[in-house]
Every structure is written in C-alpha cells, then in structure tokens.
Sequence to fold (409 residues):
Amino acid sequence: MTAPSPTVLRKAAGRPRLPPLLRLLILTQLAFNVGFFAVLPFLSEHLGRTVGMAGWLVGFVLGLRTFSQQGLFVVGGALADRYGVRPVVLAGCALRIAGFGWLGYAERTWAVIGAVLLIGFAAALFSPAVESEVARQAVLWEEAGGGPRTRVLALFTVAGQAGAFTGPLLGALLLAVDFRTACLAGAAIFVLVLAGHARLLPQHIPGRTRTRLRGGLGPLVRNRRFLALCCAYGAYLLAYNQLYLALPAEVERAAGSRAPLAWLFALSSLLVVTAQLPMTRWAGRRLDPRRSMAAGLLLVAAGFAVVALARPAGWTGTAGLLPAAAFVVLLTLGQMLVAPVARAWVPDLAEDGRLGLYTGALSSVSGLIVLAGSSAAGTLLDSGLPGAVPWLALAAVPLAAVALLPRRR
Fold:
C-alpha cells in the first residue's frame, strides 16, 4: 500500500484529523446500526409470539439471518474488490430497504425466512465493502504517521455501538405501535443512507485497484493462520449472538417480560461508546493481538459463568436481572478487546488486492459457525435441563476459542 502524504494528515486539537473518506465510512457504520438495531433485538419475540414459531425454529431463523449476512460476506468482499465500494454499498442498501419492508408484512414462516435472508444478504454486500475499506485506510493512516490502525478501527466500533445504542431505544418506542412500524422505520433510515451515499461516496477511491473475482480462494484456504483467526472469531460471534437468543429468555424468566431488554442493549452500547477508545489504548500498550483476543474471550466466558452460577438461586425481579446485567457488561468488555484487534489483524494476513475477500471470509466462516451453533443453542435452551447447564455449555465456546487463536509471528 502507498501511504498518503503527511500533508494529508491535518491537525485538530493537536491530533491528526481523519480524512473525509474515513469519517464518511465511520458515520456509515453508525447509520447502518441505527436502522438495523431498531428491529433485530425484538425479532425473536415477534417470531415466537406473533408468528408462533417453536424455540428451535426461532434459533434456526436467527442463525440463518446471521449466516446469510456473515456467511456471504465473502461474496460481498470479492465483489467490492472487483467492482469497487460504491456500487456494492448502494446495492446492499436497496436490498435492506426491501427486506425490512417485506419483514414488516411477513406472517408465514416461508415469508419470514425470505425477508430475513434478504436482510442478511444486504449486509453481506455493504458491510465487507465498508469494513475492508476502513481497514485499508487505517493501514494507510498508520503508515503516514497518523497513529495506530487499531485506533481507527476502535472508532469504527464506537460508531457502530452508538448506532446499536440508539437503535433499540428507537425500536422500543416504535413497538408501542407494532413490529411492522419498527420495520418500516428501519427501511426509512436505509432510504436516507442510500440517498446520502449516492451523493457523497466517491466513484473511485485513490489507490484501490480492481481485482478479478477468480483465483483468490486457493491461497486463502491454505492460509492456516488466517483460518485459525476465522475460527476463533466465529466462536466469539456465536457467543455474542446469545444477546439475541439466550439473554431475552433469561430476562423474561427474571422479569416476567422482555421490557428490560432494550435497557440492557443500551447499557452494552453505552459501555462501548464511553470505554472502547481507552480500552484500545490500554490494550495496545500492554497486549499483543493474540493476548488481547484471548483476554476478551475469557471475559465473554466469565459472563456466561455468572448467569450459570446464579440460576440455581432462582432470583426474580431486580435481583434476577443482576446476573443478566453482569453478563452484558462482561460480554461487552470482551467484545471491546476482540473485535477491533481481529479486524486490524486481517490486513497482515491478506494477499495484496484481496483485502475485501479476506475481510468477507472472516465473517463468512464466523457465519457458518453461528449457523451450526444457534440451532443447537436454541434446542439447549428449550431442553428442560437445569437452568445453569445451557449457560455453562455456552461458556465453553469462548474458552475453546482461546486455543484456536493463531500464534503471532
């Protein structure tokens, strides 16, 4: 990669100011998540109560949504390498608008699955295009002396979590009308995103070369260190996905409804918004990438263990929500260590000109793991086993992921 001239790095308050393209991409992540999280946290309740799906089927649909998104990132990443960021992002926004509109009116299982697949595939187009360009620009920023790439990726994470903080609050207000209204509001947000990016996103990004689609998978599947990172990240993502499957069931058991769920999601997002950058700086000074990810995975495992240890007591009400809150806090702290480092690691493992493909593959392998694990998790939660057992089994997932992390050369 060719680093931008130091003159590009304008100073603001004594610190290099991010270039306009990076600022646009970071704000893009904020907008994506506002629209997305206005709907997703409330999907499992809608599927179970309104549509009438069994627990295993709800788990399968949620896993299918993650797979159609994460699992097909490799397609979106390869298309971004071939055709550029702009057309892939705009196409993904258009599909997300259609998917949210369809989900709002879907009442049969096949229609719900079709809408969920469309929503997931839309993100499989725009997310790897944006993420790979943010990673590429972060490396250029680092090479030009602007600062460590992890800081840029941490800002990207903060923007996403700010959207994840705002989205559920907006969704909770809209659910006072009905689920369809929340879906249509999510679609309206993506209409605004589509219009804004059609105007502001450059037709051609300097330094980004187009790469043919074929010929990139062979070196990728032989890259053992990259595949090890994919598997570890996938185990983390399966654990993180329990915010939408295991946590709602636990909140309903403790509180008698899922109303506190929006506040727990807000707590998670608020933690990331306020603590992500300080934690990234702290970890960058003390931990290499492997140790940072290992520490994050151990925190995630501890979150599941807290709920498992509390379940035999059978607490309800405010006391019953305390283990769920501790789970959210520990899971979020783990996320803050894992997510930026995993993204920052990919450019070191990817071939030149294939960063979109490798960024997409990271999420695709993760999506396969989530698809395989979500149905099992849903079955486990509905199995009638003692309440601590499913949470202990889920705690083993991030623990196993620590052993999968690649060794740093």
Summary: Residues 153 and 340 are 5 Å apart (CA to CA).
